[in-house]
Amino acid sequence: MQKKTIKDVDIAGKTVFIRVDFNVPIKNGVIEDDTRIKGALPTIKYAVEQGAKVILASHLGRPLKDKKKAEEKGLPYDAGKYTLKPVAEKLSEYLGAAVAFEQDGNIGSLISAMNNGDVVMHENLRLDAGEEKNDPDFAKQLADGIDVYVNDAFGTAHRSHASTEGITHFVDTCVAGLLMEKELEFLGKALENPDRPFVAILGGAKVSDKIPVIESLIERKVDKLLIGGAMAYTFFKAQGFTVGKSLVEDDMMPKALEIEQQAKDAGVEFILPTDHQVVDSYDPINSRKAIQIEFTNTGLVGLDIGPETIEIFKQALEGAKTIVWNGPMGMFEEKPFDEGTIAIANAVAEATEKGATSIVGGGDSVAAINQAGLADKISHISTGGGATLEFLSGDTLPGVAALNNR
Ligand code: ADP
Ligand code: MG
Asked: Is 66 exposed, middle or buried (CB count within 10 Å of its CB: 0-12, 13-18, 19+)?
């Protein structure tokens, strides 16, 4: 790891600002999924054990944007949805200690009253317009009295915001948290020095979302590239197949052909599905049947990879030493079109059991892994959506670049 981590610096008795990702779903004051809170615990506990004065900060949703939208449309705006207070309470439970929560901008007085090992939490950073604007005044305010800045929020590291980038201009010591470290290690190794064979699986709805990732993986000479999901139809249509009413991005067809050629030139095995689960129409979704790709019935919609493709993808994963997966193989939210995605999830879990390092990233892909109950059988579940894709595209994330090098 090129970046310093919280373990590389002395934090005992220091005032430490940890940018965490507490952007959790909250409904009527109840946290619906606390994965992200649990994910931040190792760093927080470490800082507390070291006797640091710990200040936590996160964003939650997009309060100012939502407020503006509500005002424009004359709809009610529920300010209660955007407070991190329930998170502070939940965290206090997990830590078995009080977490002082900023209310009415009283953070300064809370900080000045802290003892070593105490935890204080900021209110939702995005309630201040300065956060997303990366306003230097707001960043300076966040940095006030801070000795060490820790970024443990990989999922927002692709944004140049006051708490992810701006603040680092006002604090000398800026390091990665333990969750951030794990992300950088797993994703960094896959890009820089993967154990081979290296197999990437890409799917999801749109090719356009994934082009930089595909190109970066081809450039790094991934051994096999498996393409599933609706994305495959743009490739097929570009090759001259009729794909019915399946999701296609017509303007991406030239790019699709270009990518296939790039893969060929780089010696990357480029594997598209050979069969599909199709239906007559989206509404109602019935009459599912598996057919070969050469379908000419213009009325059909492809919603999942077929059984033959599942076998081909499984074989391609056999013996893999590194696997990166982003994007479901079909419309997995709608049963039974989750079958392809679940089958591939199981194949990735099996390969992991046999020694592969597996990395799954992307909001929907991670949801699919959780839905399959396989989260603990994957080497690394990336916590970032956009950040993971940008990292895999080879881009430098501003929130990472701003941290001190070793
Ligand atoms: P991630 O969030 O993991 O990056 P994406 O957002 O790129 O994944 O893609 C997920 C979406 O792609 C899901 O909503 C899924 O329903 C959709 N999808 C995948 N295959 C198809 C298909 N054949 N037809 C329509 N939608 C599809
Ligand atoms: Mg998605």
From this structure: middle
